[in-house]
Amino acid sequence: MNRKTYKFLCWLFGLLLILSLFRYLLINFLDADSKVLLLGQQIIHAFYIFIPLLSVLIVEKWKVKNIILEYSISFKGTNVKKLIQYVLATAILFPAIVLFLTYIFGNVFHMSSFGEIVLEDVPSSFYGMGLPGNAYLKFGILFLISLGMNFVGLIFKFISSFSGEIAWRGFLEKYIHYSRIKKTMLIGLIWGLWDIPLLILNPCRDNIMDYFYVFILKALLCVVCSFYFVNALKQTRSIFTSSIMQGLISSSTLIFLIHGDINFFIGDTQGLLGIASIMMINGIFSKISNRNFMRDKV
Questions:
Q1: Radius of gyration from C-alpha coordinates of the chain
Q2: 192 touches 228 (CB < 8 A)
Q3: What is the pLDDT of residue 124?
Q4: CA 237 – CA 235 distance, rounded (Å)
Q5: What is the tally of helices (H) and strands (E) in the chain?
Q6: Which of 26, 44, 169, 228 has its CA 20 to 30 A from that of 288?
Q7: In Å, what is the CA distance from 123 to each residue of 148, 222, 262, 267?
């Protein structure tokens, strides 16, 4: 890693450490129902979202035009067809594969930690909206509703995803000079572990081990997503692709389609099944890309 990368990491962790200390003091010295505390936490959350982007701007000396040109932050030269393919695959295949794996592990092998799909328990209405009597049709409609909710969630997640992707797939992708695999893993680990100060300085934590497992799972998810996102960036030449994909993944949930006592470190979209789903989709795209490359070569 070069000097700019080290400066970026110092700003990234330094700003978050300051923010974490401020949050720690607010929670410890203000009443839980204080309006000042509520306002302070909202400001902290807003600032937290922009820390990766702010760190990039500081290191790059606020040269916004250069950042836009060098980090693929525009639609100029973007492969729109590939962008749409990656977005739709993430939006549809990601939760669909999680549901399939849930059925395999939960329904077929009866592993309760994964939950299970029980068509008989599918609700007859959804927030007041009546659903058809056929269980399969109800399940299909609820799946489509969940996809729609993911896109609604994307509206709220995109800003934080975009800020982060400028840092991870923009700055670090440019300035870290290792082999492709080593670089992608390192970027994934930085992305997954950069907010550790929030864990260490969290006065509200009950069980430190639960938070530890969350960070391990998040780091693994980020490493896997890094391989998926960097391939998407290479194919589409736009950082908007990975930003949209990240927003869709982070807002995705199938909780009202999966029943049972789910272990969320394993089941649903943010656990091990979600990680497996991303790996499978990335494998599909990689195979298609390699096949097209060999065909063009011939």
A1: 21
A2: no
A3: 67
A4: 6
A5: 12, 2
A6: 169
A7: 18, 34, 18, 21
Sign of CA dihedral 59, 64, 70, 73: positive
N-terminal to C-terminal alpha carbon distance within the chain: 38
* CB-based contact 167:8 (threshold 8 Å): yes
Residue identified by tokens 């922009």 is 50
DSSP strand pairing (125-126 vs 129-130): antiparallel
Alpha helices in 74-179 (DSSP H): 80-88, 94-102, 135-165, 173-175
Amino acid identity, position 225: C
Q: Which residue has the tokens 């009597």?
A: 133
pTM: 0.90
- In tens, the pLDDT along 201-258 reads 765 556 666 677 778 888 999 999 999 999 999 999 999 999 999 999 998 877 778 8
Domain boundaries, the chain: 71-297
109-130 per-position pLDDT tens digit: 988 888 888 776 666 666 667 7
